[in-house]
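Appendix C reproduces, verbatim, an entry submitted by the partner laboratory led by Prof. M.T., so that reviewers can inspect both the input and the predicted structure.
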Amino acid sequence: MAESLSENDSDQTNSSLNKFLSNKINLAVVGLLFVGLFMLAFGAGTFLLKGSSSKDDIKIISSEESASSEAGEIVVHVDGAVNAPGVYKLSADSRVNDLVALAGGLTEDANTESLNLAAKLSDGQKIYLPKVGESATSGQVAGESSSGLINVNTASESQLDTLPSVGPVTAGKIIASRPYSSPEELLSKKAVGSATYNKIKDLITVY
């Protein structure tokens, strides 16, 4: 009789243990399922956020590149000894040589001794390329105006060097700070000092 009771108690104990373990396993499975769903949702949300951020970045870059492209252009008028005089649009860092190429090249009667093909161009500028027999008084030579003033936007280093108190170093600073919209910008851009500016202000132009 005692042995029978002991066996019953043992069976009940085993049954309770099996139920307890089964419940634990079920809870663990449910927990893992919830964890898996949470990780899936978190991953999907992160992916969508990254995708949205990438699209925004692309739009911003495109806008900046477009604005930069428009700001990097200048319009210059060329006349004189070129095959196709007119108004041309060029990149902001263009030189007289680039303008001549766009205008179909120099004519046979071009006065090449008076030209500085390496001179830098500025927006709104007019360049007159002289013909043989023409001088600075009969046309605007690159680097000089029709009145004989030195154009600080296009003059070569040797032309700038003819100005009072302007040597190779100062001429280099003037060239590096181009373009200028007014002679006073030589001061604001610190290309020359006030003493030098007062000596050259009546001898220079920006057009």
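The chain has two domains: 1-71, 72-205. Additional entries are available on request from the coordinating office.
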